[in-house]
Design goal:
Layout: H1 5-14, H2 22-33, H3 41-51, E1 54-55, E2 84-85, H4 87-92, H5 98-104, H6 113-119, H7 122-128, H8 131-146, H9 154-162, H10 168-177, H11 182-192, H12 209-219, H13 226-239, H14 241-255, H15 262-275, H16 278-290, H17 294-307, H18 314-322, H19 346-357, H20 364-380, H21 399-412, H22 416-423
Helix pairs in contact: 3-8, 11-12, 12-13, 13-14, 14-15, 15-16, 15-17, 17-19, 18-20, 19-20, 21-22
């Protein structure tokens, strides 16, 4: 029978010759003075191959969105991790040739549960801080997610969180996806006081008195940030709307417009729309007119469309179409191009109004307001639309150069924005 490590250590202390004494004291002193041994790169590489990872430097097939530095990009994120393709990418994507996959035995079968846990040696990483070993642990953890491997003992993976080695979000996300009970997250927070845990809290279910009591304590905790209390309040409200509805609404109304992060504001506004009371709708209308970020206003329009709300917000949308609102900007890197007479709200607002106009059985007053708002947006249009071939945007391009640029750009697969840029260069 193979004993666990902690039991084996305890038994060794009871064996004669292993007790404390002069020899053991010298051994302990030498152990303290000894430097942590770094795991060999060959051993880490062997474990990476065992997991099914593959080094980018050994790829022979050309891959899209790559460069000469051994980095692989996808859409929109980077694919490789420190020069190694994760096992899931090796299995699913065509980065390797058929012969290479056959030689490497790809796709590889999953390892045993015990082998995965053995590979994720957090004790060795804490001693050595070896980046290659960190990569091994990270990819092994991803295999638990991608292959949906059963977690037989939660502590086997929680040791990665307890080590606080930079994989906290990955562990919490995995546990939430496996419907871990809320008490697991509650006890983690009581031990580590880590506010990241609130982002991954599961819903409250019947029979979870300890978890519910934990949430009720945290919602009144003055030391918590507003966004963390919002996550807590969300679950309490979903568990008992009658008991927590008034407090939840008051909390949202008093804080939604004060949040600095636009994503936090957007989530709170969605919550107010879910409540749907007269007071909460009034705040949402104010945010639709005044929020400085385009993405927040677009999220409101999407939610209204999903809920089928038209008449309730038409007066506010009419104000938007008239320009009776504060300006807003997009946080996107490449926002939509607009003319001088348009705003960044013109396109999403027009799309919403056209959807509303197409709805059946509209009241005459509602249809009149929709048409009026669309007319206001139509009047914003400039006679000259933004185009690479028209005056006011760039120099005129000869038809021959257009064809040359288009052929060259399409051959290398570059996005349209580069084509647009080249068309605006002098002939």
């Amino acid at each position: 029978m193979r004993l666990p490590f902690h039991m084996l250590t305890g038994l060794l202390l009871l064996v004669p010759g292993c007790s404390s004494g002069t020899d053991s004291g010298q051994q302990g002193q030498s152990a303290v003075q000894a430097k942590p041994q770094k795991i060999s790169a060959e051993a880490c590489e062997a474990m990476l191959y065992e997991l099914g990872a593959y080094p980018v430097s050994k790829l022979t097939r050309e891959y899209p969105y790559g460069d000469t530095s051994g980095v692989v990009y996808g859409v929109p994120n980077r694919v490789d991790v420190n020069g190694w393709l994760p096992p899931q990418a090796v299995r699913s994507a065509k980065y390797l040739t058929y012969q290479e996959k056959r030689t490497q035995g790809i796709p590889k079968p999953p390892l045993s549960y015990e082998r995965y846990i053995e590979i994720m040696d957090t004790d060795a990483y804490q001693r050595t801080k070896d980046p290659m070993l960190f990569l091994v642990i990270r990819l092994a953890l991803q295999e638990f997610r991608d292959r949906e491997i059963e977690i037989k003992n939660p502590e086997d993976l929680l040791k990665i969180y307890h080590a606080r080695m930079g994989l906290d979000a990955e562990v919490l996300s995995l546990f939430k996806s496996r419907s871990a009970p809320g008490v697991v997250f509650a006890r983690l927070y009581q031990r580590h006081q880590d506010p990241l845990i609130f982002r991954f809290l599961p819903p409250v279910e019947r029979g979870q008195a300890e978890y519910r009591q934990f949430l009720e304590q945290q919602v009144d905790n003055p030391q918590l940030k507003v966004k963390d209390r919002f996550y807590v309040y969300q679950h309490l409200y979903q568990a008992d709307k009658q008991q927590h509805g008034d407090g939840y609404q008051a909390f949202l109304i008093s804080n939604v417009e004060q949040m600095d992060a636009w994503l936090d504001r957007s989530q709170m506004i969605q919550a107010l729309l879910e409540i749907g009371s007269e007071e909460s709708i009034r705040v949402v209308k104010r945010c639709l007119l005044n929020d400085p970020v385009l993405e927040v206003r677009k999220a409101i329009l999407r939610k209204l469309k999903a809920q089928g709300r038209i008449e309730e917000f038409l007066d506010t949308l009419l104000q938007l179409s008239n320009g009776q609102c504060k300006p807003c900007q997009s946080v996107a890197i490449n926002p939509v191009r607009i003319t001088q007479k348009e705003t960044v709200m013109t396109y999403p607002l027009r799309a919403w109004l056209e959807w509303a106009e197409a709805q059946p059985n509209l009241q005459p007053d509602t249809k009149w307001k929709v048409d009026r708002a669309l007319e206001n947006l139509t009047n914003e249009r400039s006679p000259s639309r933004p185009s690479p071939y028209r005056d006011g945007v760039g120099p005129k391009v000869s038809p021959q150069k257009k064809r040359e640029i288009k052929d060259r750009v399409s051959s290398v697969g570059q996005p349209y924005r580069l084509y647009y840029k080249e068309c605006n260069q002098p002939c």
